[in-house]
Amino acid sequence: MEQYSFDQLPRAVSELHQKLDSIQDLLLETRQPVPQAVELMTISQAAEFLNLSVQTLYGKVCHREIPVSKKGKRLYFYKSELEEWIKSGKKKTMSELREQLTTCTGGRKGRRH
User: Fold this and answer.
1) Confidence band, pLDDT 50/70/90 cuts, at residue 89
2) pTM for the whole thing?
3) How distant, in Å, are the alpha carbons of 7, 45, 78 from that of 42?
4) Pairing of strands 69-71, 40-41
C-alpha cells in the first residue's frame, strides 16, 4: 500500500473519489432488471386471490374461462395470468369509447357514403 504525506492527501482522496464514480457508473450500466418472481398458486390460493369459491373456480376451469395449468390431477394458476385475465374483462368508460370511435372513423362526424 502506498504511503501518502499530509500534503498529498487531497489529491489522493480526489483520485479515489473519481475511481469510485467510475465503478458506480459501470455497475449502473451493466445492471440487469431483476426478473419478477413467478408466483404459482394452488386452486384454493387462486380462489382467495380472485375472491371466488373453489367450486366457482372449478366451473370456470371446466368451461375454459380462466387461464390454468394442469400437472397430473393438480391445477395451478400463475398470478400474472390471473391479473391479465382480470384486466381483459375491463369495461371501457364512455370517454374511452368516444375516443375509440373517433380513432376508427378518422374524426368524421355524421357523414355517410
Assistant:
1) confident
2) 0.53
3) 68, 5, 9
4) unpaired
